[in-house]
Design a protein that fits this description.
Elements lengths: L1 H6 L6 H11 L5 H42 L6 H4 L3 H11 L6 H12 L2 H26 L5 H19 L13 H11 L5 H11 L3 H45 L3 H11 L3 H9 L7 E6 L8 E5 L2 E5 L9 E2 L5 E5 L7 E5 L5 E6 L2 E6 L4 H6 L2 E5 L6 E5 L6 E5 L2 E5 L13 H4 L2 E4 L4 E2 L12 E2 L4 E6 L5 E6 L15 E4 L5 E5 L4 E6 L4 E5 L14 E4 L14 E3 L5 E4 L5 E7 L4 E6 L9 E4 L4 E5 L5 E7 L4 E10 L7 E6 L2 E5 L2 H4 L1 E7 L4 E2 L8 E4 L7 E4 L5 E2 L1
Antiparallel strand pairs: 1-5, 1-13, 2-3, 4-14, 5-6, 7-8, 9-10, 11-12, 15-37, 16-17, 16-36, 17-18, 19-20, 20-21, 21-22, 23-24, 24-25, 25-26, 27-28, 28-29, 29-30, 31-32, 32-33, 33-34, 33-35
Helix pairs in contact: 2-3, 3-7, 3-8, 5-6, 6-7, 7-8, 8-11, 9-10, 10-11, 11-12, 11-13, 12-13
């Protein structure tokens, strides 16, 4: 605190005192704590901004007074320069006692009858105009003087006006200098690099006396106006750069859309708009709200109350909208340091969102290092898509997550109930909205989390040995019943031999052909999409190995559409294809996968891998964070009998083998209990026959989901 006061001791702490008094007027310690921990810094920043503006105004006022005194041939003493405008004008009136200074005296009296704006205008231009009029009148009155004398007086007046531009009060002798020497004196006194200095040098380079005279009479004043405009333009450009930097930081922060919008509005406006944003607007755009994005609780807000933090959605009933109480947060720089943020409740100043253990609560700051670390959150790109995820600075790898209406910091390790992988990415992704949100519709019914859901039937695809592609629909994928929509299936294609067919989400089917092409089809429910006269698009080459027996089971597609392959380097490769741009993203993932002869995706990033001896292992790759949530979790033995395995998502597996008439067995793994849904032992249920293992089998991986 002493360091802060030392740094700002020269700054009038108007805002600081006002906020301090406001804090003292509030009963209890919360407001005072808020003032000491955060509000004082915002207040000091505003006081410093105001002080800089006041210092600039004082400097400009002194310069105007210097010019006026120089023109009136009065000494510019510090005492005179520091007088308030009205007192300065009175002193000028007292010092200008010449009998011919009639208009200056009249201007003094008129200005003093006005307000501050009239005083400023008189000092900046009125006194010079009045004095010039007095001089002109005096010259006119001296009718007995020769024309040469009158011109000499006029030239002295012209030189005084020119000298006042550089705040120089030339002596009587200096006023008689030849024009070129007078210009040299002005050039020496002008600011280096200024338009006035440049114009003086340009005039001196000319041998023509009329050029010198023109500079003294008009050129120096035009150059001075250019200098003023340049200074304004430079300040406007500097303000614009600073505002652009603030906007870029707000954009990168992921938690300051209001600040970014305010900066964008200022940048689209006038220099005055930008200046106002820097002085005040940037401090007024820090409040936001946090809205959930997960499908099972979409459109709820993080809400605060003393000692409580939760997500809530009020029911507006018949009203058009109702405010969401205590859902506005001031997003400030992290209490534990720059680069991260802290969330202070605007309804309970001085209270911050922080975990206690793993449960997130709202608590008042006690100023300790432990509290500062706990109340600091680092914004990351949304783990579940558009939005932001907030990582606990004190416990890296754990993110703000909602379960039901409760808030936790969690990872997806499964170590605790709040760490379960199901719904993790969605439940840790938040939408940052403006302050004071309002509910405009009734909340959707809350659905249970981590429950497998399937449609009435899921599509499976079989490439028979004669090249025919048939579609079958299993009518009980959730429970493994021996029920099919049409036991004979439906023919949907011919000529599919010599390739490996793997289904993706949304009806997409990938085919790796023995000529190296990777073809992308899409079944729309009644037929194949046609683009440019073809049913498929070649999206890559070099995939011929997956049409061979050695690699046909080492390719799979997950619920999100990401393609996983085990390649000759023994590593698992991840690829994501973007149809809109035709572009690929490719990663080589950690771990040795050379010991697996079959992989099958059964969810978003959920990969089951089998060894030739029949051991099955569950892996979970978080593509959004590019890290493993689970690796090589044992899931059972005896799986070597299956020559083909595929999945409909939600940890549901199908395995086909040639025994017992070509049985198709169904399994569903329960990650929460690490058991199998059929008997708990993973023996499977027969759901079909005639599914001989040599067939190319696949299913829509997004048919079933954990919601």
């Amino acid at each position: 605190m002493s360091r802060l006061l030392t740094d700002v001791k020269s700054v009038p702490l108007v805002e600081v005192r006002a906020r301090a008094r406001a804090a003292l007027d509030v009963e209890g310690s919360d407001a005072a704590t808020l003032f000491i921990r955060s509000e004082i810094f915002v207040a000091v920043e505003k006081d410093e901004s105001r002080t800089r503006q006041e210092q600039l105004a004082r400097q400009l006022a002194r310069e105007a007074k210097q010019r006026a005194l120089a023109y009136l041939e009065l000494a510019a003493t510090p005492e005179l320069l520091d007088l308030p405008d009205d007192q300065f004008i009175r002193r000028v009136g007292a010092l200008m006692v010449q009998p011919w200074a009639v208009r200056v005296q009249a201007g003094v009296n008129a200005a003093l009858r006005g307000e501050a704006a009239e005083w400023k205008a008189f000092i900046e231009s009125g006194v010079i105009a009045a004095h010039r009029a007095d001089v002109d009148a005096y010259i006119q009155e001296q009718h007995d003087k020769t024309e040469a004398e009158r011109e000499a007086l006029r030239q002295k007046d012209v030189k005084r006006r020119a000298a006042s531009v550089v705040a120089w009060a030339p002596s009587e002798g200096e006023l008689t200098l030849a024009n070129d020497n007078f210009i040299r004196a002005i050039e020496e006194k002008a600011a280096a690099g200024s338009e006035v200095a440049g114009a003086a040098l340009a005039a001196l380079r000319s041998p023509q006396p009329p050029v010198w005279a023109a500079f003294i009479e008009t050129g120096i004043h035009a150059a001075s106006e250019r200098d003023k405009q340049i200074a304004l333009d430079r300040k406007a450009a500097a303000d614009r750069r600073l505002t652009s930097e603030i906007k870029a930081r707000a954009d990168n922060s992921l938690v300051h859309p209001a600040l970014s919008a305010a900066a964008a509005t200022a940048l689209a406006g006038t220099p005055g708009d930008v200046d106002l944003f820097l002085r005040a607007g940037q401090f007024d755009a820090l409040t936001q709200s946090l809205r959930t994005t997960s499908p099972n609780r979409k459109g709820w807000w993080v809400q605060s109350g003393p000692g409580v933090a939760a997500v809530n959605h009020p029911d507006p009933g018949s009203a058009a909208s109702v405010p969401v109480a205590d859902a506005t947060w001031k997003v400030v720089d992290g209490l534990a340091g720059e680069g991260c943020h802290s969330l202070e409740s605007t309804g309970h100043p001085g209270h911050y969102l922080r975990p206690v253990g793993f449960r997130v609560q709202l608590q008042p700051s006690d100023g300790s290092t432990e509290f500062k670390n706990a109340a600091t959150w680092c914004a990351k790109k949304g783990l579940g898509g558009p939005g932001v995820s907030l990582e606990a600075k004190a416990q890296p790898g754990r993110y703000l997550r909602h379960l039901g209406t409760e808030l936790w910091i969690a990872d997806n390790s499964g170590a605790n109930a709040h760490d379960r992988a199901c719904g993790y990415q969605d439940n840790t992704t938040w939408q940052v909205d403006g302050p004071d949100p309002k509910a405009t519709k009734r909340p959707d019914p809350v659905r249970a989390e981590c429950v497998a859901e399937c449609p009435q039937a899921v599509s499976t695809y079989v490439v028979r040995n004669d090249g025919q592609l048939r579609q079958y629909q299993h009518a009980d994928p959730l429970n493994g019943g021996f029920t099919w929509v049409d036991g004979a299936g439906k023919e949907i294609g011919q000529g599919w031999l010599g390739a490996r067919t793997v289904a993706g989400p949304d009806g997409v089917v990938y085919v790796a052909v023995d000529n190296g092409e990777l073809r992308r089809f899409r079944w729309n429910g009644t037929g194949w999409d046609v683009t440019d006269g073809a049913q498929y698009k070649v999206i890559d080459r070099g995939w011929e190995r997956y049409a061979t027996a050695a690699y046909r089971n080492r390719i799979t597609v997950d619920t999100r559409g990401d393609i996983y392959t085990v390649e000759p380097d023994g590593r698992l490769h991840w690829r994501s294809y973007q149809p809109a741009t035709g572009s690929w993203e490719h990663r080589t993932l950690d771990g040795d996968w050379s010991g697996y002869d079959l992989i099958v995706a059964a969810g978003t990033g959920v990969i089951y891998a089998r060894t030739p001896a029949g051991a099955l292992f569950r892996h979970h790759y978080d593509a959004a964070r590019n890290q493993w949530a689970q690796q090589a979790k044992p899931a059972g033995y005896g799986w070597q009998m299956f020559s083909s395995m595929f999945s409909a998502g939600a940890d549901i597996l199908y395995g086909a083998h040639g025994g017992n008439g070509g049985e198709l067995l169904w399994y569903r793994y329960l990650p929460a209990t690490e058991t199998w849904a059929d008997t708990g032992s993973g023996t499977g249920r027969v759901v079909g026959t005639g599914w001989y293992g040599e067939y190319n089998l696949t299913a829509a991986p997004d048919a079933c989901r954990l919601n």
